[in-house]
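Team,

Forwarding the record for the chain on the shared tracking sheet. I've put the sequence and predicted structure together so nobody has to dig through attachments.
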Amino acid sequence: MTWYRNYSTNDKCRIPECLAAGSFGNEQLIVLEDLDLAGFDLRKNSVDVTGMESCLSWLANFHGRFMGAEPQGLWQTGTYWHLETRPEELEAMGDKELKSAAQKIDSILSGCRFKTIVHGDAKLANFCFSGRLPVVAAVDFQYVGGGCGMKDVAYFLGSCMQERECERLVPGLLDHYFKELKAAVDGEVNFAELESEWRAMFVYAWTDFYRFLLGWMPTHRKNNSYSRKLAKEVLRKI
């Protein structure tokens, strides 16, 4: 409710307009614009590179708009899988090496210099497509809050691709994201330093979600060779 009442975006990172919101006893009511009627009436279970680029453009413009913003009234740490909220999944992990590194990985992500507001659940299912426009809209801001934008990017890409596609497509998709982010951030931001830091954060963000999955659902399809490769890279770094 705080998000929809107090925050706004633009046409490059479209969200539904909040028409009304209020509390009534123990119940809360939010009335939102119908994105279907606004032209974003397509939902997709899979997307090609062009579709992924549209969603990454949304994320880049969203992150650029809120670069350096304090998440007032939102979660101080966005996303639903960060370490502080998931002690049971951490305890259930079988990978002892990654388990012992979990706090360090979380600290690296939390300690990054450039922070923004992250969507927090930026999976493919939460994007609404249009048959007429190249842009997309996004919904479901339950976990919106502060953090490194790579958390959204890694989580989104993992929601779209199998392991072989990740190996082949992630580098180019990251290039697209950073091209869009450069155009979206304020000119006072040192973009070269931002890009350098966030590109380095990508493997940590991916591995952090992989860590969560190992404790939550070890048989999940995202627990694959690509995730294991990035986790090994992170473990070598720390």
